[in-house]
Amino acid sequence: MTAGVPLCAIVPPYVLDRLAEAGHEPAVHSLALDAAHRAARLAPLPAVAAGPDLNRVICDSGHLQHLPGRTVRTEGRPPVADESVNHAYDGLGATFALFSEAYGRRSIDDQGLRLDASVHYGRNYDNAFWNGHQMVFGDGDGEIFGDFTACVDVIGHELTHGVTQFTAGLEYHDQPGALNESLSDVFGSLVKQYALHQDADAADWLIGAGLLAPGVQGVALRSMKAPGTAYDDPRLGKDPQPAHLRDYVHTADDQGGVHINSGIPNHAFYLLATALGGRAWERAGRIWYDALTGRRLPADADFTAFARATVAAAKARYATEPSVADTVTAAWAQVGVSSA
């Protein structure tokens, strides 16, 4: 990877580790590929003409491990026979739409970055990731995971890692890393809610609903509404996410628990969005976006620093509605994080 840009994959390593230990070959293969991706160093982003409009390029890796693969659909072209290509194309568009229409952002980098994605990466690859340049999707193994292009919130999650990369650049370890992951869950969920025109109380607040294959005992990879309840399966184990700071998981794995402990700020956002009501991307999402893109958020921000940034953002944007900032403070207090 390029310096300062981590490999950000949707399936946590502890999930694949458990499957690999049980002899699940696709998980063994996926872990090896993820390790290779983390060790790789990418060339600088190529010079691509930027503009204010959506520009998507979808490639087919042909089940090989080379990127980007053969170009199969470009901006404005009609759907093709391959549904993975169409899902990726639509998911990139849905993510662009949220950031552009709700927050005035010009693509992931705010400079009109072209959105590139590759589908059918490897064989039975159990992951999807943002590598600092583009989205990459595996097909899943069909036994534990399905096609990773099928969940628009997964696509929104991964592309939001790009937004974080080009803004606060949150470090990918411990609490800053958990915030990095949480922000991707927040905006991934908002991408889905925006596409479905859902109010906060109608949303499922799940990340990766529909990704688990039939027969797996679970509903998604993560739940923002009730962290720790997304799955409980003999093969996957039980969802380990905490919802409160008192249950913070101290671990050397998963970059210090970046996927596990993201449940805490995830739940704070859910509490805020449902307390404010209405469309979550309008006020709750606006506050989180302002905090992420503001100049005051350091790359090593912990939960408290981010909580303070969100309260400050609420006070600045809703200066005539002090109850909004009070609701932000209360949401963080409910998960044990001080914003004072």
Q: What's the number of extended β-strand segments? A: 10
Spell out the helices and strands N to C: EHHEEHEEEHHEEEEHHHHH
CATH class of the largest domain: Mainly Alpha
Helix/strand structural class: alpha+beta
The tally of structural domains comes to 2
Q: Could you state the CATH homologous superfamily of the largest domain?
A: Neutral Protease Domain 2
Please name the CATH topology of the largest domain: Neutral Protease, domain 2
The termini sit apart by 37 Å
What's the arrangement of strands in the largest beta sheet?
1-5-6-4-2-3
User: Which CATH-level-2 architecture of the largest domain?
Assistant: Orthogonal Bundle
Radius of gyration: 19 Å
Give a short account of the largest sheet.
6 strands, mixed
Please estimate the helix content.
Answer: 40-55%
Please report the number of helical segments.
10
List the helices and strands and how they pair.
Layout: E1 8-9, H1 13-21, H2 25-39, E2 56-60, E3 70-74, H3 83-103, E4 115-119, E5 128-130, E6 135-137, H4 152-166, H5 174-196, E7 206-207, E8 222-223, E9 232-233, E10 237-238, H6 254-257, H7 263-276, H8 284-293, H9 303-317, H10 322-334
Parallel strand pairs: 2-4, 4-6
Antiparallel strand pairs: 1-5, 2-3, 5-6, 7-8, 9-10
